[in-house]
Amino acid sequence: VCLTCCSRDVMVKIDQICHKNSVKFFTGDVFGYHGYMFADLGEHEFVEEKTKVAKVSPGVEDGPDTKKAKLDSSETTMVKKRVVFCQLKEALAVDWSGEKAKAALKRTTPDYFLLQ
């Protein structure tokens, strides 16, 4: 479900319905130069391709680069990952007075507060 130009109450209500029924939910809007996008994908599983790091043998002298790990782009491995997304209601209900939230405040875009 994709929503735009909706009130906060409507977005929260539809997200709760989607989350309950395992339906992916996206919402967003733009206000001049500022905008936001929120995604509640519920439990999302995906596969990530990781490049294997080639180990440099200690007997081989290769100059100053011998201490750096080298990436071997020909060898990759697939890693299955799982992410659990929060609901919109939870994302909007953050208590900014706590110590943990104060640390997150530095990484939070000011556009988050536009939505508030």
UniProtKB/TrEMBL annotation:
GO terms for molecular function: ubiquitin-like modifier activating enzyme activity. InterPro entries: Ubiquitin-activating_enz. This is SAE1 enzyme. It comes from Fregata magnificens.
